[in-house]
Design brief:
The chain is mostly helical. The protein is 62% helix and 0% strand. The protein has ten helices and no strands. It has helices at 21-35, 42-49, 53-60, 63-76, 81-88, 92-106, 117-120, 130-156, 166-185, 190-201. The longest helix is centred in the last third of the chain and has 27 residues, at 130-156. The radius of gyration is 19 Å and the shape is elongated.
Length: 210
């Protein structure tokens, strides 16, 4: 069962916080992003956050609650580009192209770990953390649904052939994105990811808009 911050929140207790909670959460996000949920130890997290374990538990509840707060922070920060691209572009083609091009830039920034946190954070999870992996998989599936919905809108608007398989096309571009994430983790450059984006967009089943 997916555990979210909405279902269970740690109670505030003890003395007022003596550290910048927002900055501590940002630093924790980077640790989870780099090492994944399970491999990120409490000692690594507290060292990065500049706090003690008791302060972590007081402010965030436990490691899992801290992780989900970090995921939410990622979703409205570095991970917010895809939903914006899908919502703001006038055509489905432009939306998917922008999604991948902005991903090429975001995935290779030097100011944070490489790759997509949603993809990297649940790698190598044990049975004990299977619910974390399942919850992130559900989020990724939701992202694919967003791409499919935008493609279906494009079909309805006459941008793509009426017989276009929206599900298959959405899965294709989601797979391209996840592959770009893994390649960036391995050191791929912005230029190489942009080349992948260009190749992927040549597979678009319709004439490119002017």
């Amino acid at each position: 069962m997916e555990k979210t911050l909405e279902t269970k929140k740690p109670r505030a207790r003890g003395r007022p916080l003596s550290f910048d909670r927002d900055q501590a959460l940002e630093n924790a996000m980077h640790v989870f992003w780099r090492f994944g949920y399970e491999a990120a130890s409490i000692s690594e997290l507290t060292a990065a956050m500049g706090i003690t374990p008791p302060s972590l538990y007081s402010a965030f509840g436990d490691k899992e609650h801290l992780f989900w707060e970090a995921i939410e922070r990622y979703a409205v920060g570095p991970g917010s580009g895809a939903p914006k691209a899908l919502a703001e572009e006038a055509s489905a083609y432009a939306a998917i192209k922008r999604l991948l091009e902005e991903a090429a830039e975001e995935l290779t920034r030097s100011c944070h770990p490489r790759g997509c946190m949603m993809v990297m954070a649940a790698t190598n999870c044990s049975v004990a953390s299977a619910h974390i992996e399942a919850a992130l998989a559900k989020r990724r599936a939701g992202a694919v649904t967003g791409i499919r919905d935008r493609i279906e809108q494009g079909i309805a608007n006459g941008e793509l052939p009426a017989d276009t398989d929206a599900g298959a096309l959405a899965n294709f571009y989601a797979t391209v994105y996840q592959g770009m994430s893994m390649q960036s983790k391995d050191g791929a450059t912005f230029e190489s990811l942009m080349a992948i984006t260009a190749a992927a967009m040549r597979a678009w089943p319709a004439k490119q808009p002017a």
